[in-house]
Specification:
mainly alpha; 211 residues; 11 helices; homodimer; Arc Repressor Mutant, subunit A
């Protein structure tokens, strides 16, 4: 099997095992066993589990940065909000192991901690741009302090939705998640900040999304 | 040393070590070592680490239930909201190990998963009672769906504030946390749901709290 192919298979299998069992519960030996390769072969491609986690994080980061990209030429509107949230939640689900044990992973992996901090800052700027766009369209009826606090709450609810959903359902196997409910909760964070008729428009979009 | 005293010391030391290093990173051997007792002596008092975690959870649950108690004879008002949030965040900080690795702990400890589910339901009822009280006072200018979604977001932001604060600051040692910022974020979730003058009253309370 060509080396490039093995490297890719290691990443794919690691992602699947991390997502299924939680990153703290998966060792490089588990990964090699699942792939039916020797631990030595695995270490030929990756120095350590941290190395694998960092490669997976880099791929997640690229995908998420793409999802955070805003329309360049015009002001964002409520449909952009909906679409962006949907894409972001799909990204988080694909790399859910990162969010299941976020604080633990960040405490053990210094480089991922630094990168996650930067990713969070880019996400914050993206939310700010979106809310500013709605304000410039005259859709907002909230104070700057309310907008600022809402930006932070949007990030928090998005980052921890999967964990909250698992905890409230007492189902922690990572087998399924109510992504639509997460998108809905974030839309409902923003709705009360809007003036009519934008507020009712967003409430209608959110209700249709939840069905 | 009397047995009761040793039992209490084991619980106190376990709580301190869990909070400092994260529950997944502390074994019963670490706890016995820190207390300078034999593992056998520890197992005389507690069958397993799960047993210790469950006792600590029971104590946390009692404290939190007390913090969630509402004034019985009158409708809750904005000062009650402020006071209750403050008490709840103090509780969460005292048992922060539970929230740092919530999904992992719940996935490993079935009994705690069941008890946490019940605790979350009681907390939801408490938030609902509080928001209903504000509505009965004529302070609310939001739809039932907005109120319902806000209830869920209040729980999510409260449960995961400590994790979010650690992640955004890239500081994951559990040594300190911005509890005031957490209380502020929850107050700012509720402010946009209120009619004037209650909305400005809550914004002023929140701003004073943040200073």
């Amino acid at each position: 099997m060509p080396a490039r192919k093995t490297r890719e298979r290691i990443l794919e299998t690691s992602l699947a095992l991390f997502n299924e069992r939680g990153e703290p519960n998966v060792s490089t030996n588990h990964i090699a066993e699942e792939l039916e390769i020797s631990p030595g072969n695995l270490y030929y491609h990756f120095r350590s589990k941290e190395d694998i986690v960092e490669q997976l994080f880099a791929a997640h980061e690229m995908r998420l940065d793409e999802a955070l990209t805003m329309p360049g030429e015009r002001l964002p509107d409520l449909e952009d909000l909906w679409f962006q949230l949907h894409s972001v939640f799909e990204c988080l689900w694909a790399s859910r192991f990162l969010y299941r044990d976020l604080v633990d992973i960040l405490s053990r992996h210094r480089r991922i901690r630094v990168r996650f901090g930067r990713l969070l800052r880019r996400a914050r700027e993206s939310v700010q741009r979106l809310l500013s766009g709605l304000a410039l369209r005259g859709m907002v009826a909230a104070s700057p302090r309310e907008m600022e606090a809402a930006t932070e709450n949007v990030l928090l609810v998005t980052v921890f939705w999967l964990g909250y959903d698992a905890a409230r359902r007492g189902q922690t196997e990572g087998a399924s998640a109510d992504l639509a409910a997460g998108v809905y909760q974030v839309m409902m964070l923003i709705a009360p900040l809007l003036a009519q008729p934008a507020r009712n428009h967003l409430l209608a979009l959110a209700a249709a999304y939840r069905r």
